[in-house]
Amino acid sequence: MIDTNTKIGWIGTGVMGAPMCGHILSAGYPVSVHSRSPGKAQALIARGAHWCASPADVARASDVVFTMVGFPDEIEAVYLGGQGVLEGAEAGMVLVDMSTTSPSLSRRIHEAAAIKALETVDAPVSGGDVGAKNAALTVMAGGNRDTVAALQPLFDVIARVVNYMGAAGNGQHAKMCNQLVVAGTMIGVCESLVYAARAGLDAVKLIEAIRPGAAGCWTLDNLAPRINRDDFEPGFMVEHFVKDLDIALREALNMGLKLPGLELALDLYRRLQQTGHSRSGTQALIHVLRSLPLE
Amino acid sequence: MIDTNTKIGWIGTGVMGAPMCGHILSAGYPVSVHSRSPGKAQALIARGAHWCASPADVARASDVVFTMVGFPDEIEAVYLGGQGVLEGAEAGMVLVDMSTTSPSLSRRIHEAAAIKALETVDAPVSGGDVGAKNAALTVMAGGNRDTVAALQPLFDVIARVVNYMGAAGNGQHAKMCNQLVVAGTMIGVCESLVYAARAGLDAVKLIEAIRPGAAGCWTLDNLAPRINRDDFEPGFMVEHFVKDLDIALREALNMGLKLPGLELALDLYRRLQQTGHSRSGTQALIHVLRSLPLE
Fold it and tell me: Boundaries of CATH 1.10.1040.10 in chain B?
């Protein structure tokens, strides 16, 4: 049973991890924290979190360990590397990876953990930095059903809803499905705005005209207006979207699936990265589509 | 000034045109009607519409002529062909094409009409057959601003909202922009559902999990559930979507634009047609994506 005596470990204190860990602290749990960039953990330490020098040390100090880390190779190192979580973890602990990573890696960590009688849950989120700040994230969870259910008091502190998607890796698969829809809507919205500009339409009027119908989507409501005022700040960063689309494409190929829309999206976003937009918001895709050569 | 003494002509009484013309009749206007398939006009004639043997005859009998016809070559014939609308029309009349057709054709009709001192408005709609039945269409109108404004009493009878998009052809351009977004969301949603099925996810749970966030779109809300219950009835037919995407691609090329998402959508939908799905709903796209060869 989880209560506020449950010792929480938190690894990864970036733009998502820091506010999420902050909510856990605010709810009264004792927290041990580690971050690749110790400076990013200072505010949490000032609020009472206990600093640990390694992921293994976090595990030694905790009953439940959360990770919110950037890229798959970092996640692999945090769990399976030297001084990693599995080195410090003891039987019965629960390890919750809230990063978006490859379903295959999630399953690999799950299997390595099972040998030590550890439970793992893959629990990637949607909702972005705003959702993290407002404790309004949507969780897509994979792993043992009872384990996911037992974590509910902790998820309640950081998320609005938890969707149980099945066995280990299925949380990540669901997140990939989310990103596939986002990729398609982003291409559609950006191509629409490029066409509109070239045809001489008023983009603001256009959005107003088409958003109530079959073209209606989150991207049109939230990102098209930013494009119209040349606002390319992230929201969600290009380099993270490329990471996700790359994972999705590898998984699709592993499953024998060809997904041409996904391939196109990844290709376009990689071109966007090559023009210095790695840390722009995903809506910067329109820059690439404005300037594609006709042949 | 338009009032219920204004003589209305209506050409095209298919799944969209028939209910739209019916609303005009119900509002008390005298209506002259013509259709390529006279049988489809019978119910309107029984309700008091006057049958005309040709588009020219409709024009001779009317102050305002509406057209709601399938494909660009039919629209061209209806307006510019022998016994076409322009042959029968007199100076001062207003011609309103509510079909989705090429912006270039709309402008060509506009210019040919201007020589005879006729006003034209291109006024394609979104909202589909349900919107037509419920008088809840969204109109995207191009043409003279005052002419569009003067038509408001008639649009009020068939549509929920009229969006003035600018000069002749801009209504059609706006509709193309609508279809570009729809194409992107459709690819994204169908690829997501194909991936989900292959990964063993519960598609109903997946939709529930991702629809409140950045993946949210009309297609996910309205067509994904139909796909889940193997319902491929139209809504909006593949052959009409192919027509629209083909128009959009030609216009984009004319404007010097390369739109790879649009190209992909058109290619996939043409493959779908080759497997006998011309008259399925657009959500049938998933059939193609389930079975693409890996290379």
Answer: 174-291
- Say whether domain A8-168 belongs to CATH 3.30.70.100: no
| Right CATH for A174-291 from 1.10.1040.10, 1.10.3110.10, 1.20.1290.10, 3.40.109.10 | 1.10.1040.10
Note every long-range contact of A69-74, with CB atoms under 8 Å and residues 24 or more positions apart, other chains counting: A69/A11, A69/A12, A69/A17, A69/A36, A69/A97, A69/A99, A70/A12, A70/A14, A70/A99, A70/A240, A70/A243, A71/A243, A72/A101, A72/A102, A72/A105, A72/A243, A72/A247, A74/A36
* ipTM of the prediction greater than 0.90, yes or no: yes
Q: Are strands B137-143 and B159-166 parallel, antiparallel or unpaired?
A: parallel
Residue range B204-253, pLDDT digits in tens: 999 999 999 999 999 999 999 999 999 999 989 999 999 999 999 999 99
Q: Across the interface, which of A184, A262, A268 has its CB nearest the CB of B185?
A: A184
Q: What is the pLDDT of residue A162?
A: 98
Hey, are the CB atoms on B218 and A219 less than 8 Å from each other?
no
Q: Are A245 and A265 in contact (CB under 8 A)?
A: yes
Contact B126 A210 (CB under 8 A): yes
Which residues make up the CATH 3.40.50.720 domain(s) of chain A? 8-168
Closest by alpha carbon to B10, among B40, A22, B2? B40
Q: What is the pTM of this model?
A: 0.96
Q: Say whether residue A295 is in contact with chain B using an 8 A CB cutoff.
A: yes
